[in-house]
TrEMBL record:
Alphabetic keyword roster: Hydrolase, Magnesium, Metal-binding, Nucleotide-binding, Nucleotidyltransferase, RNA-binding, Transferase, tRNA processing
Cofactor: Mg(2+)
Protein name in UniProt: Uncharacterized domain HDIG
Domain CCA-adding enzyme C-terminal, residue spans: 295-437
Span of domain Poly A polymerase head: 23-143
Length: 441
């Protein structure tokens, strides 16, 4: 087996070996190049200790000396070079409590999570595949290296990683590995929110975000997203829907492009439906105010999972407005863009489309026509550069001050009124005109 590896990675292997050490590229990059996916990064594993690595290369960064990792900088790229090691328990759920270095590649490969992630490659010696990773790759199987119960006990994050890799690659999880997941999913409680977040985002932004269903079925979501479990258990007795809330969510995620903000929005857009559900005398369900409540719940959930503020604010805003349905005419669309925000509006349109397509066929044509109309109006707003926010209002606070108005909070109110006027009469977005109108008043 011959793999193409970057010349700088090859150079690092060569320098290490010239100096009497062993070195291989390893893990995700080997897996991805065999699968014909472009690896994100090339990790190197070596018998040299971190100090020995640092002696051989001029430019290095101490990325994680305690776990044996030094980043070697070559041109503009960094390569993580890690000493062969054996891991202790992952006590804090973040890093192994203690690591021991070893001179054996086999020991290093044994500590890795799945067979497809436990292969090493050397340009001359070829592929080192001690746990039948190639076979599992061909059979499209995620399988633990060694005993699943033991491996999940050592580090419960691997439980979620199994589902993440299966979603990224479209692989199935091998039976014993799946049994281990079911048995030990409760241990995910002890894993830090940051580590869970990383794997969750990779799962959601994958070609199979609906594999979150497997995470539900095996008891994984129960540990860090029990709100989603409620959704899987909530029916929707309304003609608009043909799935439970949870299945609707899973379908909607598949119907939107693999972007982190969009997938998180779909994941959480109906998260409040189980708590807002009201069944009327005829047995029909209503979910009034689920978007407003959903915004609150999503904020709590995203904070709990330690997402950054930018992601939280975008996702929660999209959730608040996901059910906002302006008429397909210029005036209401201008108001909607102003309300939802210029930056988020195109994303909001994508959210509405995915949401609609994951519903039943009931009134589908009517819903699709409205959304199409709104989309067209939005494009016209852009083409005609119509003003929908203070950013492009022809008058600024400074203009008002030059015109003799005193600085202060009233200035903001005047600008707001001008913007309201311009949202109604886009042709009036002209400085002279707006100032004249103000004088008239
Ligand atoms: P990605 O494309 O997402 O980066 P990856 O396989 O490179 O996938 P990383 O999380 O970057 O995943 O880890 C690199 C390698 O380190 C893995 O391929 C695996 O061999 C090993 N590894 C990472 N995390 C663990 C873990 N929690 N337990 C055991 N081995 C792990
Ligand atoms: Mg990686």
């Amino acid at each position: 087996m011959k793999l193409t590896i970057p010349s700088n990675a090859e150079k690092i292997l060569h320098i290490l070996e010239e100096n009497g050490y062993e070195a291989y590229v390893v893990g995700g990059c080997v897996r991805d190049s065999i699968l014909g996916r472009a690896p994100d990064d090339w990790d190197i594993t070596t018998s040299a200790s971190p100090e020995q690595v640092k002696e051989l290369f001029h430019r290095t960064v101490d990325t994680g000396l305690q776990h044996g990792t030094v980043t070697v900088l070559m041109d503009k790229e960094g390569y993580e070079v890690t000493t062969y090691r054996v891991d202790g328990d992952y006590e804090d759920g973040r890093h192994p409590k203690q690591v021991m270095f070893t001179s054996s590649l086999e020991e290093d490969l044994k500590r890795r999570d799945f067979t497809i992630n436990a292969m090493a490659y050397h340009p001359v010696r070829g592929l080192v595949d001690l746990f039948h990773g190639m076979e599992d790759m061909q059979a499209k199987i995620i399988r633990c290296v060694g005993d699943p119960m033991e491996r999940f006990h050592e580090d419960a994050l691997r439980i979620l990683r199994a589902v993440r890799f299966s979603a990224q690659l479209g692989f199935t999880i091998e039976k014993e590995t799946k049994n281990g997941i079911r048995a030990l999913a409760p241990n995910l409680k002890c894993v830090s929110a940051e580590r869970i977040q990383t794997e969750l985002v990779k799962l959601l932004a994958s070609p199979h975000p609906d594999y979150l269903r497997v995470a539900y079925e095996t008891g994984i979501t129960k540990e860090f997203l029990p709100e989603f479990d409620r959704c899987m258990e909530t029916e929707q007795n309304t003609p608009h829907h043909c799935y439970t809330v949870g299945e609707h969510i899973l379908h909607s995620m598949m119907l939107i492009r693999p972007d982190k903000v969009l997938r998180l929005t779909m994941l959480l857009h109906d998260i409040a439906k189980p708590v807002m559900r009201k069944t009327d005398e005829s047995g029909r369900d209503h979910f009034k105010m689920h978007a407003t409540e959903g915004e609150k719940m999503a904020k709590t959930i995203l904070r709990r999972l330690k997402f950054d503020n930018d992601t939280i604010s975008k996702v929660t805003r999209l959730i608040r407005y996901h059910d906002d349905r302006p008429m397909p005419e210029m005036r209401s669309v201008r108001h909607a863009v102003n309300r939802i925000g210029e930056e988020l509006f195109p994303l909001y349109l994508e959210v509405q489309k995915a949401d609609m397509l994951a519903q039943s066929e009931y009134r589908r044509e009517e819903k699709a026509a409205r959304l199409q109309g709104v989309t067209e109006c939005y494009h016209r707003v852009l083409e005609q550069k119509q003003c929908v926010s203070l950013k492009t209002l022809a008058v600024t606070g400074r203009d008002l001050i030059s015109a003799g108005y005193k600085p202060g909070p009233e200035l903001g109110e005047i600008l707001k009124e001008m913007l309201d006027h311009v949202l109604e009469y886009p042709q009036d977005n002209d400085r002279e005109k707006l100032l004249a109108l103000l004088k008239e008043r």
